[in-house]
UniProtKB/TrEMBL annotation:
GO terms for molecular function: cyclic-guanylate-specific phosphodiesterase activity. The lineage of its organism: Bacteria, Pseudomonadati, Pseudomonadota, Gammaproteobacteria, Vibrionales. This is EAL domain-containing protein. Signal peptide: none annotated. InterPro entries: Cyclic-di-GMP_PDE-like, EAL_dom, EAL_sf. Residues 1-236 form the EAL domain. It comes from Photobacterium proteolyticum. It holds the Pfam family EAL. PANTHER family: CYCLIC DI-GMP PHOSPHODIESTERASE PDEF, SIGNALING PROTEIN.
Amino acid sequence: MKSAFQPIVSASGALFGYEALLRIYCQDGLLLQTEPFFSTGFMPSSDRINLDRLARVIHLRNFARFVSDGALFLNMTPIAALDAGSQQYGYNSLISRVKELGLSNDRIYFEILEHTCANDRLLVSSLQDMQDYGFRIAIDDYGVDASSESRVRKVNPDIIKVDRSLLTDYMDGKPEELQAVISLAHELNAKVLTEGIESQNDFNTVRELGVDYMQGYYIGRPVLVSELPCLFEPII
């Protein structure tokens, strides 16, 4: 298991932070597909929760040691958020680890993945507790599966990360969904981060729409820790 970091920029093109992405390799050194390891049904819930915790520890340590600038975005499955909410030691351990690494809670964004959740009420309660501790919450891949207006309204996140598909629809003359999520974010006092920025045209389009943050291959590709030190060069 290794960390890769992908830059996130503000509308001005300045660095805002990085999303930590897990890369999983087999014993022969071949890169494996990550998503099946977190998908429902691939492994027992307890294993998925432990994998989520381990990835978080790896990312936090690598970020503190090799990156340290800006915000850190960490993916979290809803089932792991529920587990953290039911186990107080989970919060205490996380807070202690962040402090020990010299990071501050308000620089850590937990991205709640688009997976469905068996108990939305407990999920919302757990995420609110995390915000009370100073951590930030982002809804990942808005427009896909359970990352919907309903979840956003219940969670009231700090950032809504918009899936690339909404930008593609906008470019194809179907602007309603992208415009709607931007309006929703303004209503809830949340920021909008558009994913999948792959060209100068993408960048200019979302900036004109008033999007707050951007992420994608045009901004920068994910970089393994082993490929540091140069992670990001400003695009403007």
